[in-house]
């Protein structure tokens, strides 16, 4: 049975993440926001510390343990021992780190979104072989937007290699990571079922980082455009099975999103919490108290708005924890992962912008970090599937309709 409280065994990890966010990330947040594309060298020491914690088994890092299920998943989750494992630990620690700075969390070595794809899709031999890699994830293309099923990057087998051709945009950590998980199609005529992911190393011939984007937010994180021109990839670096199963369709590839969407939800939860905490302090300094023992309608307009924002934030956090808990317990969580991402992405933007408004000139100026958090949070409602895409996925799951039946 699920208990949506922070598990006791993970309390120390969550507290440690909060201390790191407060003492290491928050102090350098503004500096690297202004110095866009400059690598935050302070993260190397932090990454080494996280690697040490990961080796103890306390957490799997930002990539968590992946959404890996077997045929007994339902039975194990329902009747077996309840697990509070790597996925729940990851979302809780990611939320705390993003309380410090979302862009710096996204810049952490060996904690890229591509690592989540590896954790979800790779076979056991690949998991061991790729241990220690820092993997970006390349999905989005210039012409397809959020519709990952229409990927045009091709992968053609040539003996013991695949030859990749195509272009990927908005690749987080695309320049700094040492490898990239690339989504490509083996046969466009077979549609979604032929889409596979490949681990492509930066030194593979044919891979080129074309440019880095200048962005509204998360400026400490590099976002790249990458092209693949006759890029040769060993066949053993196709993640998971090379077989095209038209019956399962896009399910194998989508398992990656079941893992990464709760992580993005956690980023939004952490960034929004930072805004709420600072806003409450600033309001109290201005003489506007927040009384949790009185109805909102009996308090000032600012206090009532703040209480409403906190209620929305709580809902996002609980959905995030549910999606991660289900992954830990080997339960299908596609619906819950999309619900968490949709709710947290929207709440994150609403909360951070509302906090800017509540704090007036202090919120809009660079005297505080509120304006930065408002800029950072917007991407969390966009990448890994926009708000509209998440709502579409949720509707399909609830109504039991396929993608062709509900577009």
Average predicted local confidence, pLDDT = 89
* Radius of gyration, whole Å: 21 Å
CATH class of the largest domain: Mainly Alpha
> Strand order across the biggest sheet?
2-3-7-6
The number of distinct helices, counting runs of at least 4 residues, comes to: 13
Global shape: globular
The H-and-E topology, N to C, reads as HHHHHHHEEEEEEEHHHHHH
Q: What portion of residues belong to β-strands?
A: 5-15%
- In whole angstroms, the N-to-C terminal distance is 35 Å
Name the CATH architecture of the largest domain: Up-down Bundle
Please summarize the sheet with the most strands. 4 strands, antiparallel
Instruction: Provide the CATH superfamily of the largest domain.
Output: Butyryl-CoA Dehydrogenase, subunit A, domain 3
Sheet/helix structural class? alpha+beta
Kindly state the percentage of residues in helix.
40-55%
Domains counted in the coordinates: how many?
A: 3
Low-pLDDT runs of 5+ residues are: 58-67, 69-79
Q: Could you please say which CATH topology of the largest domain applies here?
A: Butyryl-CoA Dehydrogenase, subunit A, domain 3
The beta-strand count equals 7
What does the model show?
This is Acyl-CoA dehydrogenase family protein. This protein is of the alpha+beta class and 407 residues long. It folds into three domains: 8-129, Acyl-CoA dehydrogenase/oxidase, N-terminal domain (Butyryl-Coa Dehydrogenase, subunit A, domain 1); 135-237, Beta Barrel (Butyryl-CoA Dehydrogenase, subunit A, domain 2); 251-399, Butyryl-CoA Dehydrogenase, subunit A, domain 3 (Up-down Bundle), CATH 1.20.140.10. It is 49% helix and 13% strand. It contains 13 helices and seven strands. The strands form two sheets. It has a four-stranded antiparallel β-sheet with strand order 2-3-7-6, with no helix packed on it. A three-stranded mixed β-sheet has the order 1-4-5, covered by helices on one side. The longest helix is centred in the middle third of the chain and has 35 residues, at 251-285. Residues 58-67 and 69-79 have low confidence and may be disordered.
